[in-house]
Structure to design on (396 residues):
């Protein structure tokens, strides 16, 4: 009997050693914990190699976080191998919907309509607040939005541009029907550089603008502002541009969607802390066609404040007001649309943003020019052909 017991003990010991040895050979990432970057440790074996993504861009000043995230290594820091791909407005919308591009940051109002129509993309966070305005001729006695009823409003480029959408929301919020055909105002599109002439010659009573055009017209004494997205309630806290990812990426690799969003947030924070260096990088690397001086002023005026909770609020507010203004279908449930447009991501939180630190490449911040000085700078550079309008995202 003793001999049998000893044999059993020996067998059990051998089994135990084999089990321990096999466990030691298992990959280190088999646990269920979550790392600081929001990636589940169980996903580490899959994400050992950088995830390849295509991030789209249009070549606009406000897209600086996209470029800075690339130049400063924030994509690589998140374990991504990103290729930047230039496109146009139609290509951006279609590319995000069909997964040709996996990420971008762009206008919130531009995204809500295609999402309403079934576009396969999701908003994941806010990047910066806006610079849209409604302005009236200084030759007119108009003092408030309510007095625009029956007036003619000029818009840059075409009906449907971001300034038009913002002005429509402002009018509808003040009980003025902005409908293009049967509304209480008349809309007239002009090339952006002709808006000032249209106001000066009395072809329009008011204009819907964005920077730099809005500031230039103020600097020339042609207009005064009666609604400002950057400072007037309830728009001052609303995000103009938001991070967006393709629906296919979310289904395929939600961790990668979180990583690219965090990289864009880091880029936005770096631009906020370093507007002049960011402006220089974007021009010298030929991401945008503008002068360093104008680009610096434009970036300094934008408020880069990456965030989550306020972005959700911005989606709800924009959806409700766009529906009220007739920019969405009357049957659309605005709250449901806002919820459908949004995607929470692991590791992308306001708490994470608050703890985010980026370098300050320069201790001195650029001096913001007043409206007359800015207008003079822009006109001087534009006259010799060294600058093109760098803020087309809010014009076109």
């Amino acid at each position: 009997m003793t001999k049998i017991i000893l044999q059993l003990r020996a067998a059990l010991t051998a089994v135990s050693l084999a089990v321990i040895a096999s466990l030691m050979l298992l990959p280190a990432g088999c646990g269920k914990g979550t790392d600081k970057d929001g990636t589940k440790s169980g996903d580490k074996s899959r994400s050992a190699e950088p995830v390849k993504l295509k991030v789209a861009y249009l070549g606009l000043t406000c897209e600086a976080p996209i470029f800075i995230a690339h130049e400063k290594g924030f994509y690589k820091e998140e374990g991504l191998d990103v290729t930047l791909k230039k496109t146009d407005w139609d290509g951006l919308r279609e590319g995000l919907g069909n997964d040709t591009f996996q990420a971008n940051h762009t206008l919130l109002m531009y995204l809500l309509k295609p999402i309403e129509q079934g576009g396969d993309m999701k908003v994941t966070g806010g990047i910066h607040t806006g610079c849209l305005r409604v302005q009236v001729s200084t030759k007119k006695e108009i003092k408030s939005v309510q007095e625009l009823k029956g007036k003619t409003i000029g818009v840059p480029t075409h009906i449907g541009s971001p300034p038009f959408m913002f002005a429509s929301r402002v009018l509808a919020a003040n009980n003025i029907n902005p409908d293009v055909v049967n509304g209480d105002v008349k809309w007239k599109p002009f090339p952006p550089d002709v808006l000032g002439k249209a106001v000066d010659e009395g072809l329009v009573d008011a204009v819907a603008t964005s920077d730099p055009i809005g500031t230039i017209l103020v600097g020339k004494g042609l207009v005064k502002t009666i609604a400002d997205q950057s400072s007037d309630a309830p728009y001052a806290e609303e995000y103009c541009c938001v991070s967006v990812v393709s629906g296919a990426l979310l289904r395929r690799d939600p961790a990668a969607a979180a990583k690219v969003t965090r990289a864009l947030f880091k880029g936005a924070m770096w631009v906020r802390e370093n507007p002049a260096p960011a402006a220089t990088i974007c021009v010298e690397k030929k991401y945008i066609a503008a002068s360093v001086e104008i680009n610096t002023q434009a970036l300094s005026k934008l408020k880069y404040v990456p965030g989550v909770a306020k972005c959700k609020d911005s989606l709800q507010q924009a959806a409700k007001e766009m529906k009220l203004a007739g920019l969405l279908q009357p049957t659309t449930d605005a709250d449901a649309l806002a919820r459908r447009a949004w995607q929470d991501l692991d590791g992308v939180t306001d708490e994470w943003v608050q703890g985010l630190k980026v370098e300050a490449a320069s201790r001195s911040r650029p001096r913001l020019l007043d409206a007359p000085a800015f207008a003079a700078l822009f006109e001087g550079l534009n006259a010799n052909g060294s600058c093109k309008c760098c803020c087309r995202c809010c014009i076109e």
